[in-house]
Fold this sequence. Notes:
heterodimer, A: mainly beta, Maltoporin, Chain A, globular, B: mainly beta, 11% helix
Amino acid sequence: MDKGYSELKIKFEIILIISVFLFAEFSAQSYNNLNSEIFTSEDIKSSGIITLNDIFDLSIRWNKSTINGYSNRASGNLLSTFQRQNFLVLVNGQKIELNFLDEQNLDILPFTIDQIDTVIFVNTPRNYKGFFTEKGLIEFILITPSKGFSISAMESIGNKVGDPGPYAYTQYNTPNIDKLGFLTGVSIKTKGENWSLNSNLKYFENFVTDGAIKNRISLLSDKQKERLLGTNVDLSYNFGGGSHRLLFAYSEDADFFFFPPFGNEVPSKRFFRHVGFSGNIPVSNSLSYDYSIIKSINDLGRLDNESDLGFNLKINSTYINSSLHFSKDNFYSAIGINFDKYDANKSGLNNDLLVNQFKLFFDLNINFNSGISQFLGITLQKSGGTNTSKGYFITQWNFLSKHSLLLSASLSARDMSEDLNYFTWATPESPIFENTEIDYVDFELNKPLKTYTLDFTYGFQENKNTKFSIGGFLRNFKNFYIEDYVYNFLGNDNLLKPFGEIADNEKLTAAGGNFQAYFIFPAKVKNKIDYMYQQYLSGTESIINEWEKFPRHKIVYQLNISPAENFGLGLKLTYLSETFWNEYIYSETQSNSFYNYRLDEKLLLDLSIQKSFWQNKIWTNILFKNIFNQKEFYNPIGVNLGLRFYLIVQLKLNSLFN
Amino acid sequence: MKNLFLLLIMLLPPSGLYSQSVESEVFETITLSAGYNKNISMGELNKYWNADKGASLKIESPFYAGLLGVGVDGQLFTSNSLLQPDYKSFFIYMYWQYQLKLLFNTSLRAGVKFGSYVMIFNDVTLSEFESNESELGIGASFQYDIPVSKIFTFYVQSDFVTVFTMKRIKLFTVGAGVSYNFTSPEWIRDILN
């Protein structure tokens, strides 16, 4: 163990011991919301969110990168680089297996944003509903149906500026720019005495018209748009004092899947299926039993059947969770076991590849009368034949009625097989994709990946309309592996060609701070200011290169004015400092700066005008994004989003025929 | 800008100007308007196209301090040469105007309008998908109202609109028309609120 890591571990243990012995009285605490950011449907409406992938814009602690402008790679509270997409996604408590080959396209979830009651971002590693949130977690809580029969719908259309218009027929002709697609969602709900049924249908279409991606994609496919169709049925039933839920979901997405070892988009068609049964049964007043059984199928095939280019990989996953929860007065504890089985089926293999994961978790929460709450948890895991453990410790102290202090620390070890990406499923006999010169197949790590985190926040809340917080964090990663590619743009065919290797034994220490203030001033004007700063302190070259893709400074100022109950104006000003994408350093000169490895700082202003009609049954939002029409790239080889405007209409007819 | 001031001065009553803002209850009345439009200038594009017939339709209602409305302006453009196809444009927009009451019950309004500027090119070499293009349009609008009866008003208007194509299109349009004003039925007010 190297010296820096040992020192950090010792500091962590000292903090843990001091915290345990300092305090010893009881008070109440909300366990699930601890160290989380919670956004309501009203927050979503006022934030200019259109698709599920825009959800990352709600939290300054989450960074995003996008090539095509609609699907993202994300990093939750700097717990991972953009290369790994292992943050967890839950819908109404059920784990959704969205991550597929390190892409986690939230829009595959078959509902639209108007169906969300609450979004919860868990930003530090901890046990949350039986899952260890090592890389962060997002949970969607969907709207509970009203009594009777309800129908709701959402439609969004958008346009981006900069087309040639009539100038196309003159000497001033310019290329077409990205055309924004449309999104449609319909939901039907009904609720009886002890049950409710919620079903959704979603259709999403987007066009590949921006030169940055069109030049590549048009060579690889004759298709020019993404089409996504999804549907789900969610049945909940209250029985024996507990609640039980059966969730079916199906989505198919014809899209262009960016595959890093290939360096370009692979025309692909993805199918996603989910069947989950979960619930809780009260055993006594203080003891309850939670369970869930989930079966998912993810299938990535070819978009063009005649094409040689494409994936052929199907992963069946099974997840079983069983846990006991004890809660009395100021004490809460939980113990549970999880079993995950991933079964990959692909062409060229006689037998399926299997990854089994067993987890045993334990949680303890004691609330002391002095306003101090302490949380401690551990997860012991066996994955791919390797034993690992993950633990966390959190102390929350509410003092002098308006002040709070939160200290969170975690230490986790992770086996590479937990990442479930192309390194897991590719074998030399049967790679999942053949058209690449990068050797991503013959790669193994012997040591577990270790992550140490420390977060602290001081908060002050005068009342619910005036509050601020300030905090800091430290991240330490050890034994990480990084895809260390460099992309060449040779210009003959507009495609990017990678060369490089997988760098292992990578380590990094990073730290930063954040500040948040919320106040109403003057009357009816809500102000929210968020600032986040981060910087790596030390590390190895490949992982530092990945870290430089995160902006060092992020500032978001949001202002919402509500002159009347059914009319509102929103302004959002976002500043992101420059980022560096060193894998494209040669592509910049090779492409005559068509692709730039440095993304300039951005100052983006969004304006939204919202009006409700028909006693709030219809809600409309006219949204202008990036009014200054700044260059808005989130990846050097991606689209420039620029100034665009949207019309969003939501309809809600609740409790019909009741 | 000079043209704009000249236009405003011409519209003002010659003597004893007085003004007051017009404030009505939200969505208390509805005004339907129809008029004739003529594009006077479209900047660089004047070299290639001439503006032909145009028409506008609007519907508006009082909305807090001003008037809120939606409308559509249609305009035909005829090409000067065979190199450019004729095209028609439809500007589908929303607007808000502040209204000042002047002498003799007349009023002057100024405000902003924005929406989607749709262009349909008469180009047989393109597919239907490719021959339609829409772009963001934002501009300022001015209107002078002269009531001719309790329910009918004659108006003249002028708009300056920028269409956000890669090379911007600057449109200056004038028009005149008639408005019909009536008290909003209860059911419409219910929907709008």
